[in-house]
Write a structure and sequence with these properties.
About 85% of the residues lie in helices and about 0% in strands. It is an all-alpha fold and about 400 residues long. It has a single domain, classed as MFS general substrate transporter like domains (Growth Hormone, Chain: A, Up-down Bundle), CATH 1.20.1250. The chain is globular. The termini are far apart.
Length: about 400
């Protein structure tokens, strides 16, 4: 594969994986305007984010078996068309309840990009290259929060929040055309894979029984949910507490996205000297320390706008390191069930994100504490799961070794 074609394929896969992040980030600056136009409150508008994450959580479990059974492209087209229709529905809503429902269906369509892009990486690249490829895809994804909120702020002010969803529908329509002409097909349809509920469940059980998948997916799902606490609470914290405008909020969001972009590229160099396991452990320890610092700082009123942004910048550096490495380690044991493994991993991540965003909304108290407290908790719990899981695996391995030695002696 030529370098030019290699880069172009990664760009397409990154764009696919960006559909949902872009859909989340772009409308954040419009929360106050949406709340005003729909005669509701910001915390209720925040539940449209929760609805979106629930949609991703559920639909990934559906798309996983579908892309294994029918190949990558057919489910991809179906999902993206649903996304376009739901986006138009979001633009036409007149109540917050309708917006939440349309966002759910928008997610049901858009999340196919997450599942298909991860499966296609496993199809198109050798195992030794996948962590590097995931890092580069994460770089493309990380550009989304730099562009989306900034564009969203200006579109909301200039044209109205409804145009945010019209633009999203247009972008994905263009992507469908590009996918048809330029994206490789990947693994062919496997008609031996049954879509009967029992068979699908057995496939997921097979995936879950793999210890490496279970440990890194559980730990990674919680750890990578920290940005959802930030996403859910940041518009209220920055726009209501610190009184920034929609456009300023977009630039703040873009600045914090640089943390993930820079660390994603740094991860590329770290992997030349260290394993993904080592990078993840050190990163989660660092995030735990910074998370505790955020909690104490907010509690004791240390932070002004700039110091809060700076501290969160350091914390979010970790997201560009944990995400690609955990993804690569979670999917490494699989070949036949890659789609199901990818869907299960993504579903857990989005499910954790939905829970986290809902908790931030429920704990809303007019301060930054719900946001930073949940961010810190995600890092700490993820680190705890990682250490506990690896300890159990080592213990079971040592038990097996002892039993084998005893059986030999007997």
């Amino acid at each position: 594969m030529s370098r030019k074609r290699y880069s172009f394929i990664i760009l397409i896969l990154g764009s696919l994986a960006t559909v949902s992040p872009f859909s989340i980030d772009m409308y954040l600056p419009g929360f106050p305007t949406i709340a005003s136009d729909l005669h509701t409150t910001i915390d209720k508008v925040q539940f449209s984010l929760t609805g979106y994450l629930i949609g991703i959580c559920i639909s990934q479990l559906i798309y996983g078996p579908l892309i294994d059974r029918f190949g990558r492209k057919t489910p991809l087209y179906a999902g993206l068309v649903l996304y376009v229709l739901a986006s138009v529905g979001c633009a036409l809503t007149s109540s917050v309840e309708a917006l939440i429902i349309m966002r759910f269906f928008q997610a049901m369509g858009g999340c196919v990009g997450l599942v298909a892009s991860q499966a296609l990486v496993s199809d198109l690249f050798p195992a030794g290259k996948r962590a590097e490829v995931f890092s580069m895809i994460t770089l493309v994804i990380a550009v989304s929060p730099m562009i989306a909120p900034t564009v969203g702020g200006y579109v909301t002010v200039g044209f109205g929040w409804q145009w945010l969803f019209i633009i999203l529908a247009g972008i994905v329509s263009i992507m469908i055309v590009g996918i048809y002409f330029f994206l490789p097909t990947g693994q062919a349809a496997d008609h031996s894979i049954s879509l009967r509920p029992r068979s699908v469940l057995d496939s997921y059980i097979t995936v879950i029984k793999q210890p490496q998948f279970l440990i890194y997916t559980l730990a990674g799902g919680v750890a990578t949910a920290a940005p959802f606490a930030y996403i859910s609470g940041s518009s209220d914290v920055f726009m209501n507490l610190y009184k920034v405008t929609e456009q300023q909020y977009g630039w703040i969001f873009a600045l914090l996205a640089v943390a993930m972009i820079g660390s994603t590229q740094f991860n590329h160099f770290l992997l030349k000297k260290y394993s993904s396991e080592q990078v993840i452990k050190v990163t989660l320890i660092g995030q735990t320390i910074m998370g505790l610092f955020l909690i104490v700082g907010v509690w004791d009123h240390w932070f002004n706008l700039y110091s809060l942004i700076g501290t969160m910048f350091i914390f979010l550096i970790g997201q560009g390191l944990t995400g690609p490495n955990i993804t690569a380690l979670s999917l490494a044991p699989f070949r036949k069930h890659t789609g199901s493994a990818s869907a299960l991993m993504g579903s857990w991540r989005m499910g954790a994100g939905a829970i986290i965003s809902a908790i931030v909304s429920i704990l809303h108290n007019g301060t930054a504490m719900p946001m930073v407290g949940i961010m810190a908790a995600c890092a700490m719990v993820g680190l705890g799961i990682l250490y506990a899981g690896n300890s159990v695996v080592r213990y079971r391995a040592s038990r097996r070794d002892v039993e084998e030695e005893v059986s030999v002696l007997l």
